[in-house]
Structure to design on (659 residues):
């Protein structure tokens, strides 16, 4: 790890999440580890079902049953939070970890004014009285770019457009000045024209406050522009994690290579996009060894029996036997 | 919003006219009013005179218009059997039924919502499961059986409550109430429980399933992610969203309480409109029957109108059309 200064804001160690169903116990996350430094934006990419959102839910302690954290730990500024009692965890949510959801149309309670929802959240986490909380709410709306906030604050959610609602959601997530924000595909449900604005807004606000962000998304363009580091997830495991520039330009993990190869480029001549053969395994049928081995063109015998651990390669970590020194002769 | 209310009103009026037509048709198809009023011994001339006097020789649309105009003014004609004005018969019986129905509705609503919310929040608790199991009985047992069962336990065996009638009543103007005397209140207990029980179980099950649905919504998840206390999420964020669909159905149920009152009133010999109607059916007392029909329809229309208004109060999306568009 290059992050040596101070304790990371968020540190996830061997986090394992399981969903117990009648037929089997499904592992949605399998020993996932990563750190997020203060003020850093960590992008998390991967296909649907790779465990991106589950990671966010697990960190904030909101995995719906029958899911549960089966192992590992989550540390917020050095202190464990995954084993906190419910009430203590509730005080962490919103206050120290904020969360932005995918769909702003359904994230807000349709029956209450924006002001009621903002003031409620502010007052739950601070000692401000109603008038102070309202002033704070107006200031926040102004900051997230809602025009005429002192007038618009008393509107209902349905009176805002999708992009404006996502701004309100961001204001709600930032209410209590959390040190860490989880943005779970914050632009997926928005118009393309609004997406860039929302991403820029999240980035600016977090930069101003020194807030760290975990940005979950499908959109590699957003990651390349916004994130400092990126984690590529596959079948509930981290395949590769490292500085965004390196991972995007020169991915190491065969899956990451495939993922980056599937992005069309605006410059240069139109090439045929690379496609990864096959599909991600279902959680009930993850192959032994490396989860990617059935789709990997470079797989060798060890990949079918032994799960690769994250290995440091320069500033990065890769979970692939190809980069294990002891296999150097095979990889070459 | 005004347009919304006007539309509800229009719908109500159309429903009332349709029911009025059915009530009006009863006079023509259920027996001959002239024979009914004059009896077998009347001469042909008497009949012709009465037919003329009742306006039965006029064209049907004109008769219907007259019927509607009279009914709108509360004139439903004269009871064949009792020879009294139907309107005064109804007014006399109205307080008994209204008190019974309103108390039953309140009982069903309050208890149903409370139990439904409890069953939803403590979804896996044994009390919640027990309540759900018991509610199945309420859904499946016929009303009269519950009434008879209650009578057996509380009137016959324990002798705590009277088995029939309204007890002593106090007259407030033309309104007679059983709420101000001990015997009146005691007499109300079993009929209210009987009449409200079915609605209670329906409302409870509905509240439970709606609430479980709402608790899965994104905005509940987001409220949790904001650190809002669980109690507050349940009672502030979830309950109000739960009540919107519940109120639609419960509003219709409320009309049903008045309609079902017939059975309960018969079991407890409750001197209300239901009992009046049952007697009227036995004697083919068409004016009373048609007036009762109109009354029940009116209750349904009125409750659905109230439901529409409560809706506006609960759901801001229905208010003021769309101010974002109206500048």
């Amino acid at each position: 790890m290059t992050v040596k200064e101070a304790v990371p804001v968020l540190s996830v160690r061997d986090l394992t999440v399981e969903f117990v169903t009648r037929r089997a116990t499904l592992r949605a996350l399998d020993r996932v580890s990563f750190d997020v430094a203060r003020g850093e934006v960590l992008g998390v990419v991967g296909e649907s079902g790779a465990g991106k959102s589950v990671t966010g839910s697990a960190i904030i302690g909101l995995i719906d049953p029958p899911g549960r954290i089966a192992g590992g730990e989550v540390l917020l500024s050095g202190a464990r939070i995954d084993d906190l009692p419910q009430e203590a965890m509730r005080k962490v949510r919103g206050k120290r970890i904020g969360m932005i959801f995918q769909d702003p149309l359904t994230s807000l309670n349709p029956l209450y004014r924006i002001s009621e929802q903002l003031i409620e959240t502010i007052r739950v986490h601070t000692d401000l009285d109603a008038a102070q909380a309202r002033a704070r709410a107006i200031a926040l709306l102004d900051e997230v770019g809602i025009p005429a906030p002192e007038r618009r604050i008393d509107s209902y959610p349905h009176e805002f457009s999708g992009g404006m609602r996502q701004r309100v959601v961001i204001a709600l997530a930032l209410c209590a000045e959390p040190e860490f924000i989880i943005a779970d595909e914050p632009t997926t449900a928005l118009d393309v024209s609004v997406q860039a604005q929302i991403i820029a807004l999240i980035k600016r606000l977090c930069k101003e406050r020194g807030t760290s962000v975990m940005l979950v998304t499908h959109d590699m363009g957003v990651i390349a522009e916004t994130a400092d580091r990126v984690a590529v997830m596959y079948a509930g495991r981290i395949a590769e994690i490292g500085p965004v520039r390196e991972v995007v330009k020169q991915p190491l993990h065969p899956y990451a290579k495939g993922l980056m190869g599937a992005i069309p480029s605006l410059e240069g001549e139109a090439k045929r996009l690379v496609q990864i053969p096959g599909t991600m395994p279902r959680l009930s049928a993850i192959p032994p060894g490396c989860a990617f081995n059935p789709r990997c063109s470079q797989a060798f015998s060890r990949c079918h029996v032994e799960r690769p651990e994250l290995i440091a390669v320069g500033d990065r970590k890769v979970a692939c036997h190809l980069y294990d020194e002891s296999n150097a002769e095979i990889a070459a | 919003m005004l347009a919304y209310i006007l539309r509800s009103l229009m719908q109500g009026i159309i429903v009332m006219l349709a029911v009025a037509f059915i009530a009006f048709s009863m006079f023509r198809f259920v027996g001959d009013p002239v024979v009914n009023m004059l009896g077998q011994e009347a001469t042909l001339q008497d009949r012709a005179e009465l037919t003329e006097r009742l306006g039965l020789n006029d064209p049907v649309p004109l008769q219907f218009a007259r019927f509607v105009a009279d009914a709108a003014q509360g004139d439903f004609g004269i009871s064949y059997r009792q020879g009294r004005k139907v309107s005064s018969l109804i007014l006399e019986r109205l307080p008994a039924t209204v008190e019974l129905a309103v108390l039953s509705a309140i009982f069903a609503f309050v208890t149903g919502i409370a139990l439904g919310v409890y069953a939803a929040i403590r979804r896996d608790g044994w009390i919640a499961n027990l309540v759900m199991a018991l509610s199945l009985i309420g859904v499946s047992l016929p009303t009269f059986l519950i009434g008879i069962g209650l009578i057996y336990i509380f009137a016959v065996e324990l002798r705590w409550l009277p088995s029939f009638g309204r007890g002593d009543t106090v007259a407030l103007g033309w309104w007679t109430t059983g709420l101000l005397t001990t015997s009146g209140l005691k007499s109300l207990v079993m009929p209210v429980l009987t009449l409200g029980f079915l609605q209670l179980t329906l409302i409870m099950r509905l509240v439970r399933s709606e609430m479980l649905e709402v608790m899965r919504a994104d905005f509940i998840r987001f409220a949790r992610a904001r650190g809002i206390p669980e109690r507050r999420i349940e009672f502030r964020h979830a309950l109000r969203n739960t009540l919107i669909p519940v109120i639609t159905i419960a509003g219709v149920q409320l009309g049903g309480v008045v309609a079902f009152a017939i059975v309960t009133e018969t079991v407890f010999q409750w001197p209300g409109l239901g009992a009046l109607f049952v007697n009227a059916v036995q004697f083919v007392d068409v004016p009373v029957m048609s007036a009762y029909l109109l009354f029940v329809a009116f209750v349904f229309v009125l409750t659905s109108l109230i439901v529409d208004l409560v809706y506006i109060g609960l759901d801001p999306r229905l208010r003021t059309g769309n101010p974002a568009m109206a500048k």
